[in-house]
Amino acid sequence: MRIATPTFISQAMRQAITAREWEFRVEPLGLHAMTDCDAGLISLASTSLDSVLSLLIDEPAYPILVLDPSMSLENGKLILRAGGAGYDSDQLSIADCVHALEVVASGELWASRAILHSLIRGMLEIESPHRNFPMRALSPREIEVARYVAAGLPNKRIALRMAVTERTVKAHLSSIFQKTDASDRLELALLMRGELPERIRINLQ
């Protein structure tokens, strides 16, 4: 198995990887410089969350495991929503980290139960029947855009994620605003979470 990283990884971790006779490569230019790997390993101790999210939204050719020194539910949700294959503490034991790499390389997700449960709850809430207004009027593509807006992604990142132009994203948003009566991104995010903004509540009465 081939493992790549653009960030500092401890000597012990390197030894554990090579002990399994896996290939290990450090690429300071970034993981997009490599396309023939089975998994990537990134530590937020030596790079920013924004940089990692940008990398994930660009959809690298292989799954990425992200380790975080200040592990949090919000960071984990952002990373997994952006396309990360795994998220855990950078205090993870060497044995568990190697196992996590095996899991993500096999196409599975690696994260704590709390993070996975939170993501699943969010998906169920968005799909629940009581959210019929006004999402029923949206096309599948518009719903996808609305979900990214609700997750806090700007138009540029939405465009990258959907492999379309920013102009297309803006066109979808214009249509969404017309169909839902949402006046801005905040109101749209509230609608996606099942919370009718006060202005829309009044208009419906």
Order of helices and strands: EHEEHEHEHHHHHHHH
The CATH homologous superfamily name of the largest domain equals: Response regulator
Uncertain stretches: 126-132, 200-205
Q: Gyration radius, to the nearest Å? A: 20 Å
Tell me what portion of residues adopts beta-strand conformation. Answer: 5-15%
Structural class: alpha/beta
Strand tally is: 5
Number of domains: 2
Helix content: 40-55%
| CATH topology grouping of the largest domain | Rossmann fold
Whole-number average pLDDT? Answer: 77
- CATH top-level class of the largest domain: Alpha Beta
Biggest β-sheet: strands ordered side by side in the sheet? 2-1-3-4-5
The CATH architecture of the largest domain is: 3-Layer(aba) Sandwich
Compute the separation of the termini in Å. Answer: 61 Å
Cα shape: elongated
- Let me know the largest β-sheet: 5 strands, parallel
Number of DSSP helices? 11
Structure summarized in a few sentences:
It contains 11 helices and 5 strands; from the N terminus they run βαββαβαβαααααααα. α1 packs across α4 (94-105) and α3 (73-82) packs across α5. It is an alpha/beta fold and 205 residues long.
Outline the structure in words.
The chain has 205 residues and is an alpha/beta fold. It folds into two domains: 2-117, Rossmann fold (3-Layer(aba) Sandwich), CATH 3.40.50; 128-204, Winged helix-like DNA-binding domain superfamily/Winged helix DNA-binding domain (Arc Repressor Mutant, subunit A), CATH 1.10.10.10. It is 53% helix and 11% strand. It is built from eleven helices and five strands, in the order βαββαβαβαααααααα. It has helices at residues 11-19, 49-57, 73-82, 94-105, 113-127, 132-135, 140-150, 155-162, 166-180, 185-192, 198-204; strands at 2-5, 23-26, 39-43, 64-68, 86-89. It has a five-stranded parallel beta sheet with strand order 2-1-3-4-5, with helices on both faces. It starts with a strand and ends with a helix.
